[in-house]
Amino acid sequence: MIPLNGGDLHINWQKELAQAFTSPEQLLDYLHIDPSPWQQGFQARRLFPMRVPRPFADKMRPGDPADPLLRQVLPLNEEFELVPGYVADPLQEHDSALPGLLHKYQSRVLLVLRGGCAINCRYCFRRHFPYADNAPGREGWQEALAYVAADPDINEVILSGGDPLMAKDEQLSALFDRLEAIPHLKRLRIHTRLPVVIPTRLTDALQQRLSRSRLQAVMVLHINHANELDTMLSERLNQWRRAGITLLNQSVLLAGVNDDAARLCQLSERLFEAGVLPYYLHQLDQVQGAAHFAVSDEQARALLAQLLIRLPGFLVPRLVREIGGELSKTPIDLGLEPC
Ligand code: SF4
To answer: Which of 109, 137, 202, 213 is the least buried, fewest Cβ under 10 Å from its Cβ?
Structure first.
């Protein structure tokens, strides 16, 4: 559909962010969808605010209430259901090593660079994360960087959030300077969904800064459905890959969004066309308010079996689940006979 901004591709990403939809009524009106069947669920915004940038809304199908992108962001009544096993902190992250730093895996630390995201995904495992209590401040960042510098076993820093690309390019560049000065670091990984919802966030300045870093740069995107990859995003990602930045994708398996072999195949194909390798397919983290997105392990295994038949092996993501307190992601046994 025609973007409200008149299709100006040069609009600044921060302006796009400021113009995001925060009201379900406005979003549905924009998509020409009757809000009345959904109205009661809009109260779920009290549990987790709604935020949907316009470039992401432009990838939704007008008039289709079952659109798989819309389903990921529309507050629904089901979010109020209390389902056994679904908790506020499914990955036991709320007690971090230091404010802003999570040391979940031996050789890698995660820096929670920004507390907010450009989009609020209704199934987000951090929808209850106390970002305010984990905002480190200037002194806190010194401490977090000193922690990384003091542990020679850490060879990779993962920038996470919220979404780390919510930080401005200059702020990111200053952080990269500090990280590059720590000799035992080899890699810098950025986990982000921001370019998927606002492709202009992939600025040339950031790409050039990462390309000239002594650290190997890896960007892990979060894309769940092929419709999230339009031409503009695909072209920019290819440009970043040609500039030497490794691009991976992780998806979450979501009922009503991508719990279908044909959709998952199409996603893998579209990712590869954009220069991105499918990496993980996550089972849903059991966060309170998101149980309606769950897909059973049995169905997940059946879907993976289909992907293994239909796709070359390098386009089949690994089916995993994250278990709080475990030292790595846990692969889900597909029950296949060894060859
Ligand atoms: S972009 Fe990622 S961290 Fe942010 S709301 Fe969505 S799933 Fe959560």
So the answer is: 137
**Residue 305, CA distances (Å) to 188, 273, 282 in order:** 33, 23, 15
119 in contact with ligand 1, CB cutoff 6 A: yes
Q: Which of 22, 110, 126, 160 has the most ligand 1 atoms within 8 A of CB, as the residue to mutate?
A: 126
How far is Cα 159 from Cα 134, in angstroms, rounded to an integer? 14
Confidence of residue 135 (pLDDT cuts 50, 70, 90): confident
Of 10-14, 80-84, 268-272, where does mean pLDDT reach its minimum? 10-14
Report yes or no: 93 and 303 within 8 Å, Cβ to Cβ: no
Pocket test for ligand 1, best of 102, 110, 119, 293 (most atoms within 8 A of CB): 119
Q: How much is the pTM? A: 0.92
Nearest-5° Cα angle at 234, 233 to 237: 85
Sheet holding 246-252, edge to edge: 101-105, 108-114, 156-161, 187-192, 216-222, 246-252, 277-282, 318-321, 330-331
Measured CA to CA in angstroms, residue 311 lies from 242, 262, 267 at distances of: 24, 11, 11
Atom of ligand 1 nearest to the CA of 125: 8
